[in-house]
Amino acid sequence: MTKGTRKLTLQERNRVVTALKALSNENRMAIFEHIRRGHGREQFNADNRLSVCCVAENFNISLSTIYHHIKELKAAGLVNCERQGQTIL
Q1: Which DSSP state fits 78?
Q2: Is the dihedral of CA 43, 47, 50, 53 positive or negative?
Q3: Distances (CA, A) of 48 to 3, 7, 16, 31, 58
Q4: What separation in angstroms does the CA of 55 have from each of 23, 31, 59, 62, 83?
Q5: Hey, where are the domains in the chain?
Q6: pLDDT of the residue at 44
Q7: What does CATH list as the number for 10-88?
Q8: CB of 26 closer than 8 Å to CB of 84
Q9: pLDDT grade, residue 25 (50/70/90)?
Q10: Tell me, what's the pLDDT at 42?
């Protein structure tokens, strides 16, 4: 270890491992990058949020699979989601 760096705590290491596992899926990584880069900004709602349906329009993957991938990204702490009626943002 170099001077000025510290060891990660067990909790921090577990968070990194969880995030890397979530991003190890090619489709999930593409979805994450799509969201992270702000693609589809023209489809943001009034709160500057993008719906899952708008994300799905950019991939040749079923909506249920998109929901699954976003659920995994959320569980890894990589995205935030909330339900507003029938829509997940």
Answers
A1: S
A2: negative
A3: 41, 37, 27, 18, 18
A4: 17, 8, 7, 11, 15
A5: 10-88
A6: 54
A7: 1.10.10.10
A8: no
A9: very high
A10: 56
Q: Which residue has the tokens 């991003």?
A: 23
From CA 53, how far away is CA 76, in angstroms rounded? 21
3-state secondary structure (DSSP) of residue 88: strand
Structure tokens at 83: 């339900």
The number of residues making up the chain comes to 89
Q: Which two tokens stand for residue 84?
A: 């507003």
Q: What average pLDDT does the segment 6-33 reach? A: 94
Q: Within 10 A of 86 (CB to CB), how many other CB atoms are there? A: 7
Euclidean distance between CA atoms 83 and 71, whole angstroms: 12
Contacts of 12 (CB under 8 A, 6+ apart): none
